[in-house]
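I am writing to request your help with a piece of structural work I have in hand. I set the record out below, with my sincere thanks for your time.
___
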Amino acid sequence: MSRARSTLPDLDAASDGTPEGEGRDPVSAAVRWILPYAVLTGVLLLMVRLAAKPLDNTDTYFHLRFGHEFLTGSWELGRPGSVTGFATADWVPTQWLTQVVMARFEDWFGLPGVAWLSGLQFLMLAVTFFVVARRRADPVIAVPLVMVALCASAAGMSMRPQVLSYVLVAVTTSLWLRAQETGRPPWVLVPLTWVWAMCHGMWPVGIVIGVTVVVGACLDQRSTRSLRQLAVPALSAAAACATPVGPRLVEAVLTVSSRGEYFSEWGTPVFTELNTIAALGLLGAATVIAIRRGSTWVHILLIGLAAAWTVYSLRTVPVAAAMLAPVLAASAQRLVGPRSPTLRAERYWVAGAVVAALALLAAQVPDAADRPPAALRSLDQPLSELPSGTRLLTDTGYGGYVVWRFPELEVFSHGYGDTYTTAELDRDATVSELRSGWLEIIRDDELGYAVLDPDSELAYALRELAGWRVVEESSSLQLLASSPPA
């Protein structure tokens, strides 16, 4: 038995009793056990509050529309169509399973059902962060880690399939760390990646984590014996290519990364925003502990990979947080001593809190999330009166709502970039950024109406430079028409 395995506590141990010494010190017991779980319960209630409101992320709506297209058989996985004539790319569906589930929940329960599903994702993320941290640290360490990791993930938390990727990144990292403790390859990651590849396009992140851990293990052991574990990421990649979409999933990943310049979420993180500061805090703490107390190559390389995700893009900041939750938990626990065994009462508390949170959410969403936010539906009436096939200029945000609410309209841009060719994305950027030729594009594409933020530069240019007239407006949106409409 290796020294690393013999000195680690049993992470699966459970007990009905109180850890040694806790019963004689009620203040310490309250601080180390009762207070962390009370705070964790509060965190779960906060997740409920965030989900029990109208669905304000406009990407949710094009996911619903796409899910219905797959659900009704209008689209095939091998050759999906388009919800607008302005998007003509031969694209690959990378999150069709989650889109179908979302659409089915809307069929069964309406938008409240989708909002409940959103809350389920938030709770899954919080509980996963806690479980992977608790397996390596006491509750008094794990719960604060959960709070900071959720703060770092806040920008990516919405009713979008990417939240499931953040969950699976944390699970994957934890399972690989466990594999190094037990010496057993984490074969469960192979079927898990197969499911992941149908839910969201970040599945290659799990494979990168696996390769990183294997390299670190070889450096720790000063041998190539651990290279045998590369079979897990290799088979995981094969499993991803064995989904109903097939090997074209790899093509989809390469396509997205090559067109990141057109999407703000793939832009450089803003290091003064709270979520990025939280991620940097996790990264800094893990780095300081590794430097001052020493660390294995596995941990060092995982911290380095998390650092790369932190600076890579806005969208991957939560990936870094999900990776650091189990890594930092293990490092922080080393500062205070052996981890306390997991009590059966802890499991009951967490399970009960999650069930209660989901029940509370189910009671709230029928009234709180039964319709889109007022800002989105403020122009529903005039849009419903436009003739079928009307070519409508929108920004990428509001367009996602329109393709769901008004499927008969031809929307210029809706935010799901995979369905657009690179030339079409460049065309959209030319218009939205008022580059040279923007007005000619609008005229050539026979765009007769527009729904835009009245304070946007594009809306101003249409009114003042192109002579478009205001048909209807609200505090947040303005319906414009060309004079005369095209």
Q: What stands out?
A: The chain has two domains: 3-52+92-362, 374-481. The first strand starts at residue 14 and ends at 15. The first helix runs from residue 3 to 7.
